[in-house]
Amino acid sequence: MSARSRHWGAAPDRPALALRNLSKVFGDVPAVDGVDLEVRQGEFITLLGPSGSGKTTTLRMIAGFTLQSGGTIEIDGVDMGHVPPYRRDVGMVFQNYALFPHMTAAENIAFPLQMRRVGRPEIKRRVADALGLVKLEGLGQRYPRQLSGGQQQRIAFARAVVFNPRLLLMDEPLGALDKKLREALQLEVMHISRQLGATVVYVTHDQDEALVMSDRIAIFSRGRIEQLGTGEDLYERPASLFVADFIGESNILRGRFEPAGDGGWLVRDPWRWQVGAAAAARASLEGGSAAALVVRPERLRIVGVDAGPGLATGVNAVDAIVRDVLYLGSMRKFELVLPDGNAAVVRQQRGGGGHEGRAGDRVRLTWAVDDGVLVADPHG
Amino acid sequence: MTDSWRQPRRLLLLALGALTVFFLMAPTLVVVPMSVTASNALTFPPEGFSTRWYEKMLTDPQWSSGFVNSAQVAFLTAVLATVLGTLAALGTVRGRFPGKSAVNALVLSPLIVPVIIIAIGMFSLFVRWKISGSIAGLVLAHTALAVPFVVINVATSLRTIDRNLELAAMNLGADPVRTFRRVTLPLILPGVLAGGLFAFITSWDEVVVSIFLTTARFRTLPVEMWEQVRQVVDPTVAAVATTLLAVTTSLLLLVLVVRRQAPAR
User: Which residues in chain B have their CB less than 8 angstroms from residue A115's CB?
Assistant: First the structure.
């Protein structure tokens, strides 16, 4: 076993990080309220949520900067209950970089190795390796103030991985950078983490960033994990109205659920829409409960109102009025109003052969039954 | 239109400012020409030019021992006050404990309590402890007076450094002591040095407490001046005053330079 895999990649059967019923109360306001999460070795997991949802507080508890009010944190199977931050062996990248201004880039990267009493020649070698890893060879003698924001963030990243920590924590590390640089660094961080086999816990409020980088995403809302899954899980099969609304654009049809056979119907007079068996099973709602059907904008088709009763089985429909048609280059975006006054969005690929609706047209929206996701409607 | 209306007001303001500066500086600076007088009396304006009072200051054992005593006391005070004041600032800025604001007020109280009261209190206590009239006693007394300056300077520095830097250091494996030595101290060093220089100056020209705690055999420079002025009015006092002034002014300029050296963030 090489020195590098001492932590990373070791014991693949044991979770790299396990949070059990973790909570944090500030005064009497719960910031984190019973979070359970297991992160596998080498996994890239993102905590995603609006500000104040508890994701950063969770990260700070993992780092040991904040003591939890309840629950446990295990890293590599070891309880971190009374382990101070400097003995947790966890690397962290801060949003504002937190590079030591009185040390050069190379001295910053050498710092965690010096703290671990690594010998001088090895420090020199590993600092050079780390600078190469983030493609900043030759800039080691610069002070942080002589580096651009993107370069500073690379140094911060190199400093956090140079000692092969058991976990790499990142707190909105790209938040202060402009869009283009951010997208380039997203891929770079992802590739380097994978190359090192690092287990990463990444915090962001940018859903595109989360979708691009993560193996799995934990959606945070009001101190709890609302849903945990791959980006595809969250987008295609949101488990709640909050997730459907938070990730991507959604069309939401509200009504009452009525079971029938394996599937059922969502009823809202005079309309009723069929619910697929898989969707009904996942939601497992009682008959008559308030529910919503979620359909993604690219799953909807626009047809003429006169397409009428000849609809194929396995297809749902609802009428709408086109309010705006937006040309977005590779696609066309329709903004519509549903009969209940709610907004709807349809995205159509160019050349997809859809209806050429114009503002003010009455149209019919159709979608395959299996493209509808059923969720409970807490406000219904 | 407005400019011509403003012009006289500007001039008036300038004149008022100049007058204030003159009023503040003149009594201090008047000793400089007085110290180079050729006459035997402390007079203004001086008569002729001579450096003999400086020669006398350097050769007279009473003056030179006062100079050495003052420098010793001020140096030891600066060291002690810097260490204690830095620790106090760390505690009151970073620490979280009940009665923190009371402790802070207590540490800063020598700035507010009349010096004469401190002097009388220390005198009666130090006599009982038998450290009156010794270097140790005077250093302790001056340290109490100087600590607030260190605390204020260091606390200001501490508040301006990014707390995340200390968290980052701990995250990277530095225990609290090493975090302080490698990260916090280098970043607050300009504040610590400025505080130390202020502590030195505080002791260097302190006279009230010193009068109580010194004896004929152990006198600091300001006390010696005080004694001399009361007995003989000899221009050597002006030479000594000019020297004191030069030292204090250079130290204050040094403080300004040190503060400029704050690491760019």
Answer: 172-174, 178
Total residue count of chain A as it appears in this document: 380
Is the CB of residue B182 less than 8 Å away from at least one CB of chain A? yes
What are the residues facing A112 on neighbouring strands?
A: none
Nearest CA of chain A to the CA of B258: how many Å? 15
pLDDT at A2: 40
Closest CB from B164, B165, B178 relative to A115: B178
Number of domains chain A contains: 2
Q: Is residue A244 part of a domain?
A: no
Q: How far is B86 from chain A (nearest CA, A)?
A: 20
β-bridge partners, A317: A366
- Asked whether residue A333 is assigned to any structural domain, the reply reads yes
Which pair of tokens denotes residue B200? 């030195």
Range of the domain at A372: 249-376
Q: Which of B:187-216 have CB within 8 Å of A?
A: 187
Cβ A102–B263 below 8 Å, yes or no? yes
- Answer yes or no: do A205 and A295 share one domain: no
A264 and A355 both lie in a single domain = yes
Please report, for residues A8, A191, A314, the alpha-carbon distance to residue A133 in angstroms, rounded to integers and kept in the order given.
17, 11, 52
Q: Which domains does chain B have, with CATH numbers?
A: 61-260 (1.10.3720.10)
Distance from CA of A145 to the nearest CA of B (A): 7
- Cα separation, A355 vs A360, in Å, equals 14
Q: How many A×B Cβ pairs under 8 Å?
A: 68
The alpha carbon of A199 is separated from its chain's Cα centroid by a whole number of angstroms, namely 16
For B174, which of A65, A88, A115 is closest by C-beta distance? Answer: A115
Q: Are the beta carbons of A77 and A189 closer than 8 angstroms? A: no
**CB A96, CB B162: distance < 8 Å:** yes
**How do the pLDDT tens digits run along chain A, 380 residues long?**
344 444 555 556 789 999 999 999 998 889 999 999 999 999 999 999 998 899 999 999 999 999 999 999 999 999 998 899 999 999 999 999 999 999 999 999 999 999 999 999 999 999 999 999 999 998 999 999 999 999 999 999 999 999 999 999 999 999 888 888 899 899 999 999 999 999 999 999 999 999 999 999 999 999 999 999 999 999 999 999 999 989 988 899 999 998 888 888 998 888 889 898 888 888 888 888 899 999 999 999 888 877 655 566 788 888 899 999 888 888 888 999 988 888 899 988 876 666 667 888 888 888 998 899 999 888 76
Residue of A67, A80, A90, A100 to mutate, testing the B interface (most B Cβ within 10 Å of its Cβ): A100
A225 and A296 both lie in a single domain: no
Q: Which residues from chain B sit within 8 angstroms of residue A84, using beta carbons?
A: 170, 175
CATH number at residue A307: 2.40.50.140
Q: Is B83 helix (H, G, I), strand (E, B) or coil?
A: helix
**Residue B173 to chain A, least CA–CA distance (Å):** 4
What single-letter DSSP state applies at residue A331?
A: E
Confirm whether the ipTM is greater than 0.90: no
Is residue A243 a part of any domain in this protein?
A: no
Q: Do A212 and A335 reside in the same domain of the chain?
A: no
A242 assigned to some structural domain: no
> Which residue of A86, A102, A143 is in closest CB contact with B187?
A102
pTM for the whole structure: 0.82
Chain A: residue nearest B265 by CA? A101
